Each structure stands twice: as structure tokens, then as C-alpha cells.
Amino acid sequence: MTLNGWLQIAIILATVLLAAMPLGAFMAKVYAGKRTFLSPVLGPVERSFYALAGVDPAREQGWRAYALAMLLFNAAGFVLLYALLRLQGFLPFNPQGFGALSPDLAFNTAVSFVTNTNWQSYGGETTMSHFSQMAGLTVQNFLSAATGLALAVALVRGFARSKMNTVGNFWVDMTRSTLYVLLPLALFTAILLVALGMPQTMLSSVDATTLEGAKQTIALGPVASQVAIKQLGTNGGGFFNVNAAHPFENATALTNFVQVWQMLVISVAIVFAFGRLVGDNRQARALVWVMGVLLVAGIAITYAAEAAGTPMLHQAGINPADGNMEGKEVRFGLALSALWAAVTTGLSCGAVNAMHASFTPIGGLIPMFLMQLGEILPGGVGSGLYGILVMAIIAVFVAGLMVGRTPEYLGKKIEAKEVKMAMLAVLILPTAILGFSAVAAVIPQGLAGLLNAGPHGLSEILYAYSSAAGNNGSAFAGLTANSPWYNTTLGLAMLLGRFAYIVPMLAIAGSLAAKTKLESSTGTFPTHGPLFIGLLIGVILILGGLQFFPALALGPIAEQVMMLTGKTF
Amino acid sequence: MSYLRPALVLLLLFTALTGLAYPFAVTGIGQAFFSAQANGSLVERDGRIIGSDLIGQAFTSDRYFWPRPSATSAADPTDPTKTVDAPYNAAASTGSNLGPTSSKLADRLTASSEAWRKAGLSQQIPGDAVTTSGSGLDPHISPAFAKAQVARIASARNMSEAQVRQVIETATEGRTFGLLGEPRVNVLRVNRALDKLGS
């Protein structure tokens, strides 16, 4: 680790915080339905969309209607995307003449993009037409992110309101998220990325004759428009197979800076928006502290592990100061690769600028563990906020048990129903991850996809289901996941991780909105101070640790021990 | 049904807006104002495209700087169900994805470091000289790796080692704003600089 490396990391994170505060204030206005500086331009578009769709923006929905609207919208998105992928061969903007995706791959990909996961069982430049990338995948990059934001806002309203039976209007929240937040930021940053070197063309490739006279076919395409939203929406699905490690998808340290900023900014901003919407900015700052402490710890451990290198590299006579450069790009080096790996998994982004499969065992354990903690550090756009609020409910419940009082959070009594629903949501993750991993580790269809043997092979499986259920999308990419078994089960894990979590979460929103908002009294446990921050960190770590430590012990931890004894597989 | 109409209509409207209008707007603006970057930062010599400034190439001649090893492959021309090694295949990016206890990786690292020793490298081997990049298309090498190749290139081109070192010096890019990223040498650029010297 170097001082310069830490300075780079600190400056990027500081830039995110600086931008997230005003963006959060802007988003709070958007979701409260107030006028913003974009209203003169986008207001007419918004109103015409409602008119065409038959939506009355003033009419709010209860949590069940909100959930139903969200599920239907996502189901329609899935059907359209599945159809586009299956009919790819007949659709326009297909210069390479790619044919249809197989049914299981189209299922996996459609689920993947609708659930904001963006797991990719395919290589972009060898599978997808420009039309599929734009009208199929890019659209869901926007809409799945907008869905996440809308859901988070619904839960926040549950805390902010008193004795109401509605949580908002899904159509309005989703439309506003797309029009006022995602689209302007995507347009602006996409053009910035083109200026910094990212291709944006309708050509599919050019042929070059290299200095040594060989032919090199260079894949191209409308890269920037997709990359901008895949980062902003914490989607993570790359235009190219290797995602942001590809020089066209991430040309310089500057494009890397912009993309890390993009990944984090909305997820942090929505926390600040939450503070404004519940009328107490201290609550938002407490959550940002929790996210920040755990994320920086993750970055530090990954950075240290990668800088330490491996015995194998040292035996080959490599300069130990260069650390582990297998699977990493020279222009990013160790610091920016470690930063990205922790951020992309602390978020539910899943874009990668280095191959996590080739990280050291501990360097690879951290991204896996960050996903298993529930994608809340700071998590996907919207999903991170509702995820950490569910954790906060569990934390105040634990605190309430310790002092023997009915727990309260933000003036709402947390009672049996909320805690049951929170636990139901939280248990989805270990069920999907450990259940599918256990089966895949013993059946031939599961083992057939492995590239690495020994504990690293188990890590490939565990990482895949953690990524799918956490709606992350990054991979230990040695795993050949484009098989009926993995396409189907990973698709199911993604659906469980997204929708089986959302429905109980919305039930909490509905139940909270109906309760009276209490004034805080001297007996109220303050949820903005260091004590609560510590408690929440503890609950997150203990919950994640208890659930996943046994599996991690068989994967990366066993590998670390064996690596140090010099064993290879 | 009161939910079906908004679901379908909004899906179609947003598909038109974010799936067609938005990418075409970015394409139009990109092509109009940043056409070199938007078309892949291509490098031409005598009117012919010789590559992209951002994409690495496989150099094997002793007269050129060699890039990092690459894990990319291509379909086997004799048997399309199999693949063959094809370093710097810019139509299908990939990393090795080999883990830290992979015996395959251990063998590869030992073989490449032995090859560097045979090629006369006596000091410690730079980390990027024997490891594959994440993309398989890394256009850069570290300054240390470039310097490790000076003797070979100088003798192949009948140049002095000082001259080759001078070429590296000129081609080395520092951190952006003195802060971001890592110092690096673009292999295609530095090799073109060698060719321009004419020897």
C-alpha cells in the first residue's frame, strides 16, 4: 500500500460525499413533488406520460397496490426483454448478425437486468446486437434502478407519515426517478465519458493491420450510453465481456474516477434525501457513517491483501512491491482495483475493473462478504437504503430487547409485525445463497462449470449465488455460467433476492405509514449517535457473519491457509 | 385492468426514450464533438488503421517492446468447437480468471519468469511482465517492465541503450494531475516512436 494509493481513494470518496448532499436535497424535492430547476423542461414530458398511460399522479396507493403495480411493471419489462433477446436475429441494428439467445440464457439475462443484478452469463461483444444492448438492456438499466428508488421512497414515506394508509404512487415515483434523476445524470456523464475516450458509434468493429502486419479486429459499439447508466443505476452489466477492465469501457484513471463516482453518488444521495424527507438530517448522517466505516474497512483489507501478493508470485521472482497484478490493468494498479472491487460489491453494482477471480483469497473474500452483508454499503440505488433501514429496524429491536422497552425508530413503534417482516426479508439472502450453492457443489451440472479446483472452486460457486441473490452481478468469472443449470438457478436466486425481499419490505412501509408518529421523549433510544452507529455496524456484521462464516471458511479462508502452506490445485 | 395500461404504456414510452432517443442523442453529440474518441481512438499510418490507442497489440519481434501476456483466445480455425490462444484478440476480451492456488497459474508464472531470465533479465521481474491483465487487451506496461526490455531492443535495432531509454522516458505517462492512476507506457505509442527513429 502506498500513500498515493490512499490519497486517490480518499479524494474519490470525498468527491462522492460532496456531490451526494446537494443531489440528495434535489431528490427529496423531486419525490415530494415540488418544482425543481428541471421542471420547465421535464414537467411537460412527465405530464404527457401520465396522460398517455392513464395515470392520475395525485392518486396514491396503499402498499399492496404499490407492490402490485411494481410487480406488473417488472413482469412486463421481463417479457419484453426476453422477447427482444429471443428475436434478436430479426431485429435491426445487428451489424454482426448475431442470432437469438438460447431460452435459458435469455431467461437468465432478462431476469438479470430486470432485477438490477446484471449478472452476465454471456460475453457482450460476442453475443449482443446493438439493438439488444440499447433498446433491451439499457432500458432495464434505467427502469430497474428507477424501481429501486421508488421502493426506497415508499419505505421512507412509511416513516415520515402519520396515520395514513397510502405510501405513494408507484407510477409517479418510477417516472420521476427516471426523468429527473437518472436520465439527466446519464446524458451528462455519457457525453463526458465519450470526451474522455469511450466509443459511441453504430459500427460494430474495425479491422486494423498492426505494426507487425497482423490483422486485429477491434469490437466497437454504442458503449458510453450504456456504461453511463450501468454505473449510475448500480446495474453493472458491461458492454464488453470484461466490463470496466476493457480499455474502451474504462480508458484512463480519469474515466475510472468518473465511474466510481457514478456508482456511489445516487446511493449515497438517496440517504441524504431520506434525512430531509423524515425531517431529521442527523438520521441520514448516522446511516452514511455506518456505510462509510464498513466500506472503508472493506477497501483497506482488499488493498492490503492485493498489495501483499501471493507466495506463487514471490517464488516466480516477481518484485514483491508490485503485489498481485494477475487480472489487473496497469493503468489502475493495486489501489484503484481494490477500491473498485469493494465499492462495486458494497454497492450492488457488479461492474468490475479487475478480475475478482484472480484476487488473493482474502482480497476475494471481501467482495463476497460485502455482497453477503445484504448490499447495503451503501447498496444499490434505492435498494441500499431500504436494505439498511430493514437492518436498522432489527438493530432497534435488539436494543429494545436489551432495555426491555418497545423499540422505536424515527418516531414509529417497531412491533411484532415489522420485526417479523424484516426477518423474513433478511432470511431470503442466506436461503438463496447457501441453498443453491450447497446443491451446485455436489451435482455434476454444478461442478461442470468450474475453472479452478480446490477451495477456489467452491468460492466460484458461492460467489455466483451471493452475486445473484444480492443482485450484484459481478463474478469469479472462471465459472462457466452459460449452462441450463446455472442460467436457471442463478435466475431464480436473482428473483428471490429482489422480489421476495421487496414484498415484506413494502408490507413494513404500509404498516408504518398507518401508525401514529410519536414525539421523542427522554426514554427514546437516540438513533443518530455513535452508540446507534456502533450497534447497527454490530448487527450487520453479526448477522452476516453468523450466516456465512461456515461457508466462507470452506472457500476463501481454507484457500488462504492452503496458499500459505504452498499448496496448489 | 387499471394496472395493465400504465405498465405497458410507460414501458413502451421509456423504451423509446431511454432505449432509442437517449443512445442516439449520445451518439449524435459524441460523433459531432468528439469523433476521434467516439470511433475508438484509432491510430492511422499512411491512411491505414494500425490499431487503437487504447487497445493493446501482440508484439513478438525483438525490435519492439512486448506487451503483457494476454489470456484472450479465438475459435480454432480447424475445429470451431475448440479455442486456441490468440493474445490481444480485441473482438473477445477476457482475463485468465485463474485463482491464487491454481497450479495452471503457477506453471505459467514459472515458465514466463524463466523465459525472462533466459532473455537476460537479472533484476527482479516486474509484476506486470508475467501476469495477464483483466481485459487481455491492456495497452500499457509499467516503466519498470519497459526498462527491462532495453537491452534486447537496443541490440535488435543497433541502437545504444541510452537511446532506447530516452524513447521510454519520452513515452512514459505520469499519474493524471500527478495523483490518479499509475505511471505507464503505452506499448503501441512507444513502438511507433521506435519506428520513427528509423533504425
Automatic annotation (TrEMBL), chain A:
It is a multi-pass membrane protein. The chain crosses the membrane at residues 6-28, 65-85, 142-159, 179-198, 260-279, 286-305, 332-352, 359-377, 383-403, 424-443, 490-510, 531-554. It holds the Pfam family KdpA. Keywords: Cell membrane, Ion transport, Membrane, Potassium, Potassium transport, Transmembrane, Transmembrane helix, Transport. Its main location: membrane. GO terms for molecular function: P-type potassium transmembrane transporter activity; potassium ion binding. It is found in: Cell membrane. InterPro entries: KdpA. The keyword Transport applies. One of its GO terms (cellular component) is plasma membrane. Part of the high-affinity ATP-driven potassium transport (or Kdp) system, which catalyzes the hydrolysis of ATP coupled with the electrogenic transport of potassium into the cytoplasm. This subunit binds the extracellular potassium ions and delivers the ions to the membrane domain of KdpB through an intramembrane tunnel. Belongs to the KdpA family. The system is composed of three essential subunits: KdpA, KdpB and KdpC. This is Potassium-transporting ATPase potassium-binding subunit. It comes from Microvirga flocculans.
TrEMBL record, chain B:
Its main location: membrane. It comes from the Bacteria. It is found in: Cell membrane. Keywords: ATP-binding, Cell membrane, Ion transport, Membrane, Nucleotide-binding, Potassium, Potassium transport, Transmembrane, Transmembrane helix, Transport. GO terms for cellular component: plasma membrane. It is a single-pass membrane protein. InterPro entries: KdpC. GO terms for molecular function: ATP binding; P-type potassium transmembrane transporter activity. Pfam families: KdpC. Belongs to the KdpC family. The system is composed of three essential subunits: KdpA, KdpB and KdpC. Part of the high-affinity ATP-driven potassium transport (or Kdp) system, which catalyzes the hydrolysis of ATP coupled with the electrogenic transport of potassium into the cytoplasm. This subunit acts as a catalytic chaperone that increases the ATP-binding affinity of the ATP-hydrolyzing subunit KdpB by the formation of a transient KdpB/KdpC/ATP ternary complex. This is Potassium-transporting ATPase KdpC subunit. The lineage of its organism: Bacteria, Pseudomonadati, Pseudomonadota, Alphaproteobacteria, Hyphomicrobiales. The gene is kdpC.
